[in-house]
Amino acid sequence: MSPTVERVGPYRFFFFAGDFVEPPHIHVERDRAVAKFWLKPVSIAYSRLFTAHELRQIEEMVRERSTAFLEAWNEFFGT
What pLDDT, in 10s, does the model give residues 25-56? Predict the structure, then answer.
């Protein structure tokens, strides 16, 4: 199970149900490109197939939404 937290343009932000064993983070995908961002503090954990320019844009989106993503994380994982 990977619940979608938000969609912004072509990007889907989501969690994996098994993610509770790691610190709070959000996954993002567009087509076959994927990335993972830690939420506290916001930083990139890994990426595949996104350009550096696109990753900077996505990181800014994550920063702008980090409070909402953390709230969604805590609600979904019950922390």
Answer: 999 999 999 999 999 999 999 999 999 999 99
Number of Cβ atoms within 10 Å of the Cβ of 10 = 9
CA dist., res. 10 & res. 35, Å (int) = 14
**Full-prediction pTM beyond 0.90?**
yes
CA 57/CA 29 separation, integer angstroms? 13
Q: Any bridge partners for residue 44, and if so which?
A: 37
Three-class SS of residue 6?
Answer: strand
Which class for 23: exposed (0-12), middle (13-18), buried (19 or more C-beta within 10 A)?
exposed
| C-alpha closest to that of 30 among 2, 59, 8 | 8
Listed in sequence order, the residues at least 6 apart from 79 whose beta carbon sits closer than 8 Å to its beta carbon are 20, 73
